[in-house]
Amino acid sequence: MPTRNVDLTDDLDRFVEAGVASGRFGNASEVVGEALYPLEQREREDHAKLEWLRNAVNEGFDAIDRGEYVTLNSEQEVDNFIDKLREEVSAELAAKRNSA
């Protein structure tokens, strides 16, 4: 297993020592490892979200290339379009709930 030297603030050092002293962790490496797992998970989730967004953008550009888009010329048209989408999504969710 690789060895790393890290510098901790006094507060973090006390926290690590307390975790080991309490018996919750066998050593400082276990404390640090436990702390790194959520960071690793968040980075995996962020990567997955970014991939999803890239795919969504590509799908959007492909739809535009196929002529599948709506031109909105005023703030009112944008508001009306968003309201219509909201109603459609709400109806779709209600239908899914009722069929479950």
Structure at a glance:
The protein has 100 residues and is an all-alpha fold. It has two domains: 9-69, no CATH class; 70-100.
Q: How is this structure best described in words?
A:
There is one protein chain. The two termini are 49 Å apart. It is elongated, with a radius of gyration of 25 Å. It is 75% helix and 0% strand. The chain has three helices and no strands. The chain is an all-alpha fold and 100 residues long. The protein folds into two domains: 9-69, no CATH class; 70-100.
**Separation, N- and C-terminal Cα atoms:** 49 Å
Structural class: mainly alpha
Overall helicity = over 70%
Total number of helices: 3
Shape category: elongated
Instruction: Tell me the strand percentage band.
Output: under 5%
Biggest sheet, in brief?
none
Give Rg in angstroms: 25 Å
The ordered string of helix (H) and strand (E) elements is: HHH
Q: Using DSSP, what is the number of strands?
A: 0
What is the domain tally?
Answer: 2
> What is the oligomeric state here?
single chain
Low-confidence stretches: none
Average pLDDT works out at: 96
